[in-house]
Structure formats: C-alpha cells, structure tokens
Amino acid sequence: MKVSDVISRARNILLDSDATSYRWSNAEMIDYINDAQRLVAVYRPDSCSASTVQTLSAGSKQSIPTGGFRLLDVVRNMASDGTTPGRAITITARDTLDRFDPNWHTATNQSAVKHFTYDERIPGQFFVYPPVSSGVKVETVYSKYPSAVSATTDDLTVQDSYFEALINYLLFRCYSKETDFAANAQLASSYLSLFASVLGIKLQKDIAFGPKVSNKGGDPNGAAAQLGGVA
Known about the structure:
Elements: H1 3-14, H2 26-43, E1 49-55, E2 59-63, E3 68-78, E4 85-88, E5 90-91, H3 94-100, E6 115-118, E7 125-132, E8 137-144, H4 163-176, H5 182-206, H6 222-226
Parallel strand pairs: 5-6
Antiparallel strand pairs: 1-8, 2-7, 3-4, 3-8, 6-7
C-alpha cells in the first residue's frame, strides 16, 4: 500500500478533504506515519522482517546485519556461493552450552554452525556453536528499521496488515495537535488506545517472534513454538 492510502483514509475521518485548506499538511502526516512505522516495528519486529545470507566473523559472537535491530532466526548454513543450502541450524539454551562446556567460546573454529543462542537483552547480537572460521555463511532472519517515507507516492515499509494501526496512530497525532477542544483530546486518547489494541490483539494471536522473550539467553519455549511462534 501507498502512503497516500493511509492519508486519504485518515482525511476522510478527520473531515479534512479540501486540498485548498488542509488543517494537517501532507508533510506533517508523513512525519506521523514515519513515527507510526517505527513504533509498529518496535512492538512487532515481524512487521519489518528480512532474510539474508550473512557472512559470519571468526569466533562465536556475531552481530545481525547493518540496519537491523532484532534477530528473529538463524535458519541454515549456506555454501560459499551464498545460494546452496547446507545443514539446518537449531536454537539452543546458552545455559546448556555453558554447563556442557564452559570453554566452548574458545573451542577450535569450525566450518559450519550447529546451534545458535540469543539473549533478548542484546537483540543485535547472537552466538553460534561451535565457533566458526571467518567467512562462514548462514541464512539469517532479522527485523530491520523501517525505511522513512517522504512522499505520498511511496510504498509503506511495514506490511499491509498494519494499515489499520497506522491510520489509528495518524489520527491520534492529528487530534493531539488540537486538544484545545475537549472532544479532540478524548478522540486522540481513543485512537491511541485503538493503535495499541490492534497491535496487542496481533501479539496475542501470534505469541512472539523473537527467539526468546525473557532475560535468559536462547532458551526456546516448545509450547509457544507449537502455536507458530516462540516465546
């Protein structure tokens, strides 16, 4: 969908469709849409997910690609050509690795990854087991920061399923600008609640998409995985 689709729907609700005397300019609304997309990405990392073949650094500690902010999965090893798939990679608990071999970070570097572990407190990095040599390639799924839109003809960065959330946030920001009227303040609060509600409903349905949502690194939740996510 386009930026113009969100703005057009919002203007209809705002009764602000006269292009000769807009109360809220397109530029202002575009700024609000950029804010909304960033918030959606924070609360729903899967809304801006990307899959890439990543070249790993030597050792166990790795970082997600530039422009990303949260790891979602490390899927499989890839051959040096970057297109031929290899061994699958599974998530494991860091506690398990630490107990099994406290010195696993200093083990001899290998040419393939068996497992990865992840800590939600440090969403931009992960660890691989065994440690690998520089140049090993894996397929990584991660959340990236949404690209800013600058024109009404631009495509939205987040997925189309978040169209309603963007509209609600846009309406919240617009009404918040004119809170001299009590009714507008109430409307702003209502649309902010709707924005949060839409994202909350989707969270309850989809569980969570990070490898681990807790303060322990990389400990997968089997029950949540059976429901289509991991938590």
